[in-house]
Design goal:
Elements lengths: L2 H26 L11 H15 L5 H18 L5 H29 L1
Helix pairs in contact: 1-2, 2-3, 3-4
Length: about 110
């Protein structure tokens, strides 16, 4: 990892930590914030976002982590729906289609 990437990583992680700390402080001193701002799904989404930023938005794992966090957050925000199962199944379908298309495109390039 070169110096510029390392500095960018420090900046992104630092800003995320400042944001989480500020939200947590507000919550601790009694300022009402939406419950979903500081939650496990938000932390999962932020983890996926960090992976994506470090990989230049080209990481399949980062997209899966981010999407899974988004599904969990949506399930919290709309509790009367079955979004965990629908969202997780959708993520698996999209990821499977992506890998099949990637295989077909790579196979097509080999024959040319």
């Amino acid at each position: 990892m070169n110096q510029i990437e390392k500095q960018t990583t420090y900046l992104v992680v630092g800003m995320i930590l400042i944001t989480i700390g500020t939200l947590w402080l507000f919550r601790s001193i009694g300022i009402e914030l939406p419950e979903h701002l500081i939650s496990i799904p938000t932390i999962i989404m932020l983890s996926g976002l960090i992976v994506l930023i470090k990989a230049g938005f080209k990481s399949e794992a980062g997209w899966v982590i981010f999407a899974f966090g988004w599904v969990l957050l949506l399930n919290r925000m709309v509790p009367d729906r079955n979004l965990n199962q629908i969202g997780t199944a959708s993520i698996l379908l999209v990821l499977g289609a992506y890998y099949v298309l990637r295989y077909l495109i790579a196979d097509k390039n080999k024959t040319d």
